[in-house]
TrEMBL record, chain A:
InterPro entries: CO_DH_flav_C, CO_DH_flav_C_dom_sf, Diverse_Substr_Oxidored, FAD-bd_PCMH, FAD-bd_PCMH-like_sf, FAD-bd_PCMH_sub1, FAD-bd_PCMH_sub2, Mopterin_DH_FAD-bd. One of its GO terms (molecular function) is xanthine dehydrogenase activity. It comes from Sphingomonas abaci. The keyword Ubl conjugation does not apply. Its EC number is 1.17.1.4. The keyword Flavoprotein applies. PROSITE patterns: FAD_PCMH. This is Xanthine dehydrogenase YagS FAD-binding subunit. Pfam families: CO_deh_flav_C (PF03450), FAD_binding_5 (PF00941). Residues 1-222 form the FAD-binding PCMH-type domain. Keywords: FAD, Flavoprotein, Oxidoreductase.
From TrEMBL, chain B:
Its EC number is 1.17.1.4. InterPro entries: Ald_Oxase/Xan_DH_a/b, Ald_Oxase/Xan_DH_a/b_sf, Ald_Oxase/xanthine_DH-like, AldOxase/xan_DH_MoCoBD1, AldOxase/xan_DH_MoCoBD2, AldOxase/xan_DH_Mopterin-bd_sf. Residues 47-153 form the Aldehyde oxidase/xanthine dehydrogenase a/b hammerhead domain. SUPFAM superfamilies: CO dehydrogenase molybdoprotein N-domain-like, Molybdenum cofactor-binding domain. This is Xanthine dehydrogenase YagR molybdenum-binding subunit. GO terms for molecular function: iron ion binding; xanthine dehydrogenase activity. Residues 1-22 are annotated as: Disordered. The keyword Magnesium does not apply. SMART domains: Ald_Xan_dh_C (SM01008). Pfam families: Ald_Xan_dh_C, MoCoBD_1, MoCoBD_2. Keywords: Oxidoreductase. Gene3D superfamilies: Aldehyde oxidase/xanthine dehydrogenase, a/b hammerhead, Aldehyde oxidase/xanthine dehydrogenase, molybdopterin binding domain.
From TrEMBL, chain C:
Residues 1-75 form the 2Fe-2S ferredoxin-type domain. Keywords: 2Fe-2S, Iron, Iron-sulfur, Metal-binding, Oxidoreductase. Transmembrane segments: none annotated. The keyword Metal-binding applies. It comes from Sphingomonas abaci. Gene3D superfamilies: 3.10.20.30, [2Fe-2S]-binding domain (1.10.150.120). It holds the Pfam family Fer2_2. It comes from the Bacteria. CDD domains: fer2. GO terms for molecular function: 2 iron, 2 sulfur cluster binding; metal ion binding; oxidoreductase activity, acting on the aldehyde or oxo group of donors. This is Xanthine dehydrogenase YagT iron-sulfur-binding subunit.
Length: 327, 747, 178
């Protein structure tokens, strides 16, 4: 860990002002940032401690839905009665992630910004375009069992590790930020993450010094079933090989609405409208579920040891849809 | 091995040249032996006051952080320390190209390991240590240290280098053993199995990383280290440093797990010692978790070709178990894959061979039950395959091949309850509920199956000594350079002494893990309890004789109980008999019994697993082990040892896979997030049962090793259950979901 | 800087990079909390901070100047053990002891979470938590134990939680007449 300046902010205005310093980073839970700083994968010159900011509550919004403060710890969010009642997929996703200790510290905002667990990103002795732009991707042609099959580029095949963010994607969350100039913006989660392309080091649309202050969820889908299914190598405390977050509402035998997002497959929490289109307005049949899987995986590309993720995702999605539709 | 440093004097020595039918543990009346007593060190462990290597509070300590090579093979050409030496708080950057150890040492060796770090033999090899006034500064400086290398081509790919394989020299077992003609038997037998099983490299992943604090007092070194075998570790350290072994003291009171990875010295010890000498102040060096993975020791990957030939009666006519493993060039330790195969089943034609591929990957060495832990995977999965081909119940097949004499040496077994363990286990587990046809039982999305495997682990005795003193206040002290790595040594040695001397366990002070105490073999190979336990036994036997003399009675007439010596119608407090104190040293040595009898502990593993029919995820639902390992010294700690072994088996079967990048020899999953040791949720309530047994050929306490019995056979029981559950036979371990997917039912 | 640990105020001058774990281990002589991985992957460093169990290796000391910190040393000491510590001894919920302080702090924090009604991945119904063995195992999965005392750890925690006390050790002892 390199030395850094440490500043404690009392409010959001002060925080974003402090964060204008070169190579400044916000720190809240710190569970991912400090992990990476110890390995000198992250080397901020300044940490702005935002844990004293009043960004802690979960509050109903006038227009329906809830606003989740950026500093709400993962465990509190998962256990919140409103979240359990209206957004069960989010509770389930949070509880499927990390450990009790980590969930107690990790925050809502920080979880969205988790960085990949790619072996090579974590090893500063190897090339990695995400860690060191232009150095090359060691995962392509290397050990890539845990890496992505969708949305990759020739520069990077890293997966996004968050479970929470997958549920947020299925729930059409909106990320609320404050910029250093005081401007606030609301970013749909579908617009928040960036695919690696030629710049895998840039993972979101956040600008330097821009602070996540809240995440908003739209009103709940009445009468919908929720599911978060995570496939992993251990029964607990392991990252997803594949995960499915789903919110599906039925009208008799017909799928009235569906939102489906996927983890473990791509550099960002993955969602593809074609998957939902394959089932919405149609009867809940295996044939339609298979079509949804086809749509999901049409462009999937394995890299060798992660080839299995393609059939695994297919099977997991179909089984998830059966459960979500009560079939 | 310890002869050189075993002193002479008033001591009770025993070489196991003949059976020892009578044990004082059976005639003493204190009633503590075998009892499930709580660990005597328990309160210290649960309150955080047990002191592990890195936790000694020592003044003026410099913090050392080790630096590993960033190439897989080649030469260090320059270490440019100028920039980091200029960092505030950095004291120095130290290396010693000749003296730093390149490879850790294997357990029990009394020589220095391979030294010299200018040559880089594997990625992460420790080449320097950065010293600073704080850990934070040292860590930062170590990461910034600039090292230049000449790269050399390395051998990293097992498959690509298999034609370079060599036959290593014999170790515990010969590298190659053949008897009869397996090829011929295979062509003649009505039923055969030929299959190749592959197991990956594994890491012991003890929770405490390797750590040393080195303190010099003039020319004498005290090293607070996390080591399983302090007596031989001190010899290794002395040889590495070129000083007299009398000048090295190792203190290892508490060891945060070892499982073989701390048998021999690791690089942090020598680096800390050299740095402390140069700086003239104590140095602490704790390996980072990534360094434990990169630069300590692994269990070798194995490729095992199994050949079994049997008659229609199920009786084996041939066993072939030919293995290929790997190690660093120049290292001759080989994973003794076939060690259990030598004595487990009948079969007049036998081929058990071990060859080794030299690879530029970190040292391979002992990890919990070297040999059996992975060798039993090949043998016991092949037996499962054979049972299916024969239409035999897997338990019946094993019973049909149980034997009453060693199949290779024409000598008897010292004790062996294999069939009984299988029988008892089958009843307790409900084996009759198993459907012999795979993939028949389904509960929702889950396919349920049961598997069985024999358990066997060779038994060893190692030269060890211990001193026992009875004090004037009637209390006692037991001291030995034995260690407790979580096995329960503190407790069972106190129980042995308490039982024989009639002293309540709470009045016995234990001193272990200090080479100033009588030398002992330490903890490894499941020999710790029996070896050090026998030494304590012998010391107590002599004390008992002395007490009898003081009482003026025949030893046979003396009863020792609750601190009283009772005989000739008198009852005298021990304190009154011992005057200023009474002491004796006991010493055990292996002898002719080792060769006259094949000694091993046995058991049976049963597993019930659920395989997710959609995803291939495997969950162990139930597991049961029945074990016979001679006298159980403490039913609580012995059971815990078995739980630990069984869980290691779950990891070996399902999750653990140390993966090297074949392009450059780098370990890719070198942390505890991606090297998957089982977590609590992976392990159901495990059931452990013991069969009562005494082994009079093994040692005077009639016990055999138990710490590794629980792993030997555990993984194949799980693997066989996976096959029974879903009908997919995975021969490449671990059985992760990706390997099952293709064989699962269509959705 | 001042830190409130185990009800006492401690003064220490630390590097801004010093983790809460290293503050305790390297500066204050509180070595009960263990460093197993230093990256939040093993749980050996678990402490109770403001009543919540966290990985003390993954937080900076400087961020906890006004936190109430409880380490294993603060839960109980030899002769005056916390009920959870005592249960770990009786159920042999450890072997080498290195993960043990973290397991115990984690278990204490975990039972507090259950008391608040927090669900887990093992909860079929997120609104009605019943502390089964599967619940305990899932909730304790952030604490690795390589010696694998897991079944005994579950036994110890179940007993402290008042959910029944199995005695599998006694059965094993009976079998060998001990």
């Amino acid at each position: 860990m390199k030395p850094f300046a440490y500043a404690r902010a009392g409010d959001a205005d002060q925080a974003v002002a402090e964060a204008l310093a070169p190579q400044a980073r916000f720190i809240a839970g710190g569970t991912n940032l400090l992990d990476l700083m110890k390995l000198q994968i992250e080397t901020p010159a300044k940490l702005v401690d935002i844990t004293r900011l009043p960004l802690g509550g979960i509050t109903p919004r006038d227009e329906g839905g809830v606003s989740i403060g950026a500093l709400v710890p993962n465990s509190d969010l998962a256990a919140d009665p409103r979240i359990i009642a209206d957004y069960e997929v989010l509770s389930r996703a949070l509880l499927a992630g990390a450990s009790g200790q980590l969930r107690n510290k990790a925050t809502t905002g920080g979880n969205l910004l988790q960085r990949t667990r790619c072996y090579y990103f974590y090893d500063t002795a190897t090339p990695c375009n995400k860690r060191e732009p232009g150095s090359g991707c060691s995962a392509i042609g290397g050990v890539n069992r845990i890496l992505a099959v969708l949305g990759t580029s020739e520069k990077c095949i890293a997966t996004h590790p968050s479970d929470m963010a997958v549920a947020m994607r299925a729930l059409d969350a909106t990320i609320v930020t404050q910029k250093p100039d005081g401007d606030r913006r609301r970013i749909a989660i579908g617009d928040f993450y960036r695919l690696p392309g030629d710049t895998p080091q840039i993972e979101t649309v956040l600008e330097p010094g821009e602070l996540i202050t809240a995440v908003e969820l739209p009103p709940k889908v009445e009468g919908a079933r929720h599911l978060y299914r995570k496939v992993r190598d251990r029964a607990s405390y392991a990252f997803a090989l594949v995960s499915v977050a789903g919110v599906v509402r039925m009208d008799g035998d017909v799928v009235a609405s569906a939102s489906l997002a996927f983890g473990g497959l791509a550099p960002m929490p993955w969602r593809n409208p074609a998957v939902e289109a394959a089932i919405v307005g149609k009867p809940a049949t295996d044939a339609n579920f298979a079509a949804a899987a086809d749509a999901l995986l049409a462009d999937a590309k394995g890299q060798g040891s992660n080839d299995f993720k393609i059939p695994l995702a297919r099977r997991t999605l179909i089984a998830s849809l059966r459960e979500l539709t009560g079939k | 091995m310890l002869d050189a440093i075993f002193g002479q004097g008033d001591r009770n020595s025993l070489t196991m040249d003949k059976p020892h039918p009578d044990s004082l543990l059976d005639t003493s009346v204190q009633g503590v032996i075998s009892r499930p007593l709580d660990r005597v060190d328990g309160p210290f462990k649960v309150s955080g006051t047990a002191t592990y290597a890195a936790e000694y509070q020592i003044d003026n300590l410099a913090h050392g952080v080790l630096v590993g090579a960033k190439i897989g093979h080649g030469t260090v050409t320059a270490i440019d320390a100028s920039a980091v030496k200029a960092m505030p708080g950095v004291i120095d950057v130290i290396t010693d190209y000749d003296t730093f150890i390149r490879n850790p040492q294997q357990g029990g060796e009394t020589t220095a390991p391979t030294q010299g770090v200018k040559e880089v033999g594997y990625f992460g090899q420790i080449v320097a240590i950065v010293l600073a006034e704080s850990f934070e500064v040292a860590r930062d400086a170590a990461q910034r240290l600039h090292i230049e290398y000449d790269y050399a081509a390395g051998a990293y790919d097992f498959d690509a280098n298999r034609d370079q394989s060599e036959t290593p020299p014999a170790s515990q077992i010969p590298a190659h053993y053949t008897q009869g003609n397996v090829d011929k038997a295979m062509t003649q037998a009505p039923v055969t199995v030929e299959a190749t099983y592959v197991t990956p490299s594994q890491n012991s992943a003890a929770m405490e990383p390797h750590a040393s604090i080195a303190v010099w007092n003039d020319d004498a070194l005290t090293l607070y280290g996390s080591y399983q075998m302090p007596t031989s570790d001190a010899q290794q350290l002395a040889k590495s440093l070129g000083i007299s072994e009398k000048k090295v003291r190792i203190i290892a009171r508490y060891i945060g797990g070892g499982f073989g990875s701390k048998l021999g010295i690791a690089p942090e010890s020598v680096a800390a010692a050299i740095a402390a000498k140069r700086l003239g102040r104590p140095v602490k060096a704790v390996m980072a978790r990534t360094q434990v993975f990169d630069a300590t020791v692994r269990r070798s990957n194995t490729e095992q070709r199994l050949r079994l030939a049997a008659g229609k009666d199920g009786k084996l006519t041939a066993i072939g178990h030919d293995s290929l493993t790997s190690n660093l060039p120049g290292e001759d330790y080989f994973e003794p894959v076939g060690i259990g195969t030598h004595f487990l089943y009948r079969g007049e034609n036998r081929s058990i061979t071990h060859d080794m591929v030299p690879l530029n990957l970190l040292l391979s060495g002992s990890m919990r039950a070297p040999g059996e832990a992975v060798g039993m995977i090949g043998l016991e999965c092949a037996m499962d395959e054979l049972a299916e081909k024969l239409g035999f119940d897997p338990i019946d097949l094993r019973k049909a091949n149980d034997i009453d004499a060693d199949p290779e040496k024409d000598i008897p077994f010292s004790s062996r309850q294999l069939s009984r363990a299988l029988q008892v286990g089958a009843e307790k587990f409900g084996w009759d509920q198993r459907n012999p046809r795979p993939a028949q039982r389904r509960e929702g999305e889950w396919l349920i199956g049961m598997g069985v495997a024999s358990a066997a682990r060779s038994n060893m005795l190692q030269q060890s000594s211990a001193k026992v003193e009875i004090h004037a206040d009637g209390s006692a002290t037991v001291s030995s350079a034995m260690t407790d790595i979580g096995t329960g040594s503190y407790t069972i040695l106190a129980q042995i002494a308490g039982e024989i001397l009639g002293i309540p366990v709470e009045k016995i002070r234990m001193s272990l893990g200090d080479t100033n105490d009588p030398p002992a073999a330490g903890s490894g190979g499941s020999w710790g309890a029996t070896s050090a336990g026998s030494a304590v036994y012998l010391a107590c036997e002599l004390l008992r004789d002395k007490l009898a003399k003081a009482m003026d009675v025949d030893p046979g007439e003396l009863t020792l109980k609750d601190g009283q010596a009772i005989g000739a119608n008198r009852s005298v407090p021990l304190g009154e008999l011992v005057g200023q104190g009474m002491e004796a040293t006991g010493e055990i040595k292996p002898g002719k019994m080792e060769k006259a009898m094949t000694q091993a502990s046995y058991g049976a593993h049963f597993a019930e697993v659920a395989v997710n029919a959609v995803t291939g995820e495997v969950r162990v639902r139930r597991m049961l082990g029945v074990f016979a390992a001679g006298r159980v010294l403490n039913a609580k700690t012995a059971r815990s040892q078995c739980l630990g072994g069984m869980t290691f088996g779950i990891g070996a079967a399902l999750t653990e896979d140390l993966i090297h990048d074949q392009r450059n020899g780098k370990l890719v999953n070198r942390d505890l997030a991606e090297y998957h040791v089982p977590v609590n949720a992976d392990v159901p309530q495990l059931e452990v049962h013991f069969l009562d047994e005494r082994d009079i050929y093994a040692n005077p306490i009639h016990a055999k090793g138990i710490g590794e019995l629980g792993i030997s056979g555990a993984a194949p029981a799980v693997a066989n259950a996976v096959y029974n559950a879903c009908g997919v036979r995975v021969r490449e371990f671990p059985i992760t979901c990706d390997k099952l997917l293709d064989g699962l039912p269509a959705l | 800087m001042k830190f409130n640990i185990n009800g006492k105020t401690h003064d220490a001058e630390v590097d801004v990079r010093t983790s809460l774990l290293d503050l305790c281990r390297e500066h204050l002589g509180l070595t009960g909390s263990k460093k197993g991985c230093d990256h939040g992957q093993c749980g050996a460093c678990t402490m109770l901070v403001d009543g919540r169990r966290i990985n003390s290796c993954l937080t900076l000391a400087v961020m906890h100047e006004d936190s109430e910190i409880v380490t294993i040393e603060g839960l109980g000491q030899v002769g005056d053990l916390h009920p959870m510590q005592d249960a770990f001894v009786r159920h042999d919920g450890y072997q080498c002891g290195y993960c043990t302080p973290g397991q115990i702090c984690s278990a204490v924090g975990m039972l507090g979470e259950v008391e608040k009604g927090w669900p887990s991945h093992a909860s079929a119904d997120l609104t009605a938590v019943e502390l089964s063995d599967a619940e305990i195992s899932e909730r304790m999965s952030g604490n690795l134990c390589r010696c694998a005392a897991y079944p005994n750890i579950v036994d110890a925690i179940r007993e402290v939680a008042g959910k029944g006390d199995r005695q599998p050790v006694l059965e094993a002892a009976r079998e060998i007449g001990a």
